[in-house]
Amino acid sequence: MNGEPIQKWLQAVGVGSRNEVRLMLTQGRVTINGEVTRRFAQPVGVGAQVAVDGQPVVPGHERVVYLMNKPIKHLTTIEDQEHGPGLGRYLPEGAPRVFPVGRLDFNTQGALLWTNDGLLARRILHPDWSLPKRYGIKIRGHLSPDDPGLARMRAGMTVGKATYRPAVVEMGPQRTRATWIYVTITEGKNRQLRRMCAACNYQIVKLRREAVGPVALGELNKRCVRRLEDHEVEALEAAWLASRPLQAEEALVDEAQEAAGVVVSD
Question: Given 17, 38, 134, 171, which residue has the most CB atoms within 10 angstroms?
Answer without folding.
Answer: 134
